[in-house]
Write a structure and sequence with these properties.
This protein is mainly alpha-helical and 303 residues long. The protein folds into 2 domains: 105 residues, DNA polymerase, domain 1 (Orthogonal Bundle); 185 residues, Orthogonal Bundle (hpI Integrase, Chain A), CATH 1.10.443. It is built from 13 helices and 3 strands, in the order αααααααβββαααααα. The chain has a 3-stranded antiparallel β-sheet. A hairpin with a 4-residue loop joins strand 1 and strand 2. The longest helix is centred in the N-terminal third of the chain and has 20 residues. The protein starts with a helix and ends in a 7-residue tail after the last helix.
C-alpha cells in the first residue's frame, strides 16, 4: 500500500488549482494520513482507487468512537470528498465512494469535548487550600493527562505508579492491563497529594491501602463520587456544558488527534477493546507512547 504519490499529486492540486494556502493544504493532507493510518491498523492493503464506501464509513465511526469533535469530523469529511473529486478529475477513479458519505449520526450522544482553555478554567477553579481540593486537582489532572476511564481512576494503585519515568499502569475492561504515559503536570499534582494529604490519613481501610485516591474516611472513592466532584468543579468554573469524568477522556483523545498525534498510539492509550490486542500491544514502544503525549498533549507544551 503506497499512498504517497496520490497525496503528493493531491497537494499540488490543492496549491495550484484550488489555490489554497499551505497550512490549509497540510490540514487536508493530515486528515488523509489519518485514513492511511486507519487502514494500516486494520491491515487493509488497498490503494485509494480501491477504497469503498464501507471502508470510509468504518473509518468515520472509528474516529467518532475515539471522541473526535464534530468540527474536526466535518473538516475530515471535506478533505475526503475533495481528495476523491481530485481522483475523478485525474481519471484515476470512475466512481466516487464519498458521494453517499455522511457524518455519523451518533454525535448527539457524545459527551461535550472541552477546549484546552476550558480545561484550564476547570482545574483552576479547584480550591487547593482544602485537602480534598488537592486530591481533586490530582485526580482531574490524571484524567486529562492519561484519558483514563473513571473506573480505572478509582482503582489506580500506588504500586502501579511509575512517576519517575512518566507512566502509570491501569487495569481496563476485561481486566486488561496497559501502560499509559502521564505528563509532568499530572505527576506533580499526584506527588503533592500523596505527600501532603494521603500520607496524613490517620486511618486507611485495609482494602484501600494500595489505592491512590481516597475519601475522607480512608476508603476508595466511588465512581459516583468522582462524577459529583467533576460536576461541582465545572459549576464553579462557570462551564455551561454537560461535563463528566468521561469528558476528560474525550478531550484527551480529541486534543491529541487534532494536534497531529499518531492514531495507533492514541488508540492504545485509551485501551479501546476493538484495537487493544496482545499482538498490537506487544509491538508498541512505550517510549513512542510517551513521546506522543509529550509532543501533542496541550498540558505539556511550553511557551
Amino acid at each position: 500500500m503506497n499512498w504517497h504519490p496520490f497525496l503528493q499529486g493531491f497537494r499540488a492540486y490543492l496549491l495550484l488549482e484550488r489555490t489554497l494556502a499551505d497550512n490549509t493544504a497540510e490540514a487536508y493532507l493530515g486528515d488523509l494520513r489519518k485514513l492511511v493510518q486507519f487502514l494500516e491498523i486494520r491491515q487493509i492493503d488497498l490503494q485509494p482507487q480501491q477504497i469503498q464506501l464501507s471502508h470510509l464509513v468504518d473509518f468515520i465511526l472509528w474516529l467518532n468512537e475515539l471522541g473526535l469533535g464534530a468540527r474536526s469530523q466535518g473538516r475530515l469529511l471535506s478533505a475526503l470528498k475533495t481528495f476523491y473529486k481530485y481522483l475523478l478529475i485525474e481519471d484515476l477513479i470512475h466512481e466516487d465512494p464519498t458521494e453517499q458519505l455522511e457524518g455519523p449520526r451518533l454525535n448527539r450522544h457524545l459527551p461535550d469535548v472541552l477546549s484546552y482553555e476550558e480545561i484550564q478554567r476547570l482545574l483552576e477553579a479547584i480550591d487547593l487550600s482544602e485537602p480534598q481540593g488537592t486530591r481533586n486537582r490530582a485526580m482531574l489532572e490524571t484524567l486529562y493527562a492519561s484519558g483514563l476511564r473513571v473506573s480505572e481512576l478509582v482503582n489506580l494503585r500506588l504500586s502501579n505508579l511509575f512517576l519517575d519515568i512518566g507512566f502509570v499502569k491501569v487495569t481496563g475492561k476485561g481486566d486488561k492491563e496497559r501502560i499509559v504515559p502521564i505528563g509532568d503536570e499530572a505527576a506533580k499534582h499526584i506527588r503533592i497529594y500523596l505527600e501532603s494529604v494521603r500520607r496524613l490519613h490517620k486511618h486507611i481501610d485495609k482494602d484501600s491501602e494500595n489505592i491512590v485516591f481516597l475519601n475522607r474516611r480512608g476508603r476508595k472513592l466511588t465512581r459516583v463520587m468522582v462524577f459529583l466532584i467533576v460536576k461541582d468543579c465545572a459549576l464553579k468554573a462557570g462551564l455551561h456544558k454537560s461535563v463528566s469524568p468521561h469528558t476528560f477522556r474525550h478531550s484527551f483523545a480529541t486534543h491529541l488527534i487534532e494536534g497531529g498525534a499518531d492514531l495507533r498510539a492514541v488508540q492504545d492509550m485509551l485501551g479501546h477493546e476493538s484495537i487493544l490486542t496482545t499482538e498490537i500491544y506487544t509491538h508498541l514502544d512505550t517510549d513512542f507512547l510517551r513521546s506522543t503525549v509529550m509532543a501533542y498533549h496541550p498540558r505539556n507544551r511550553r511557551e
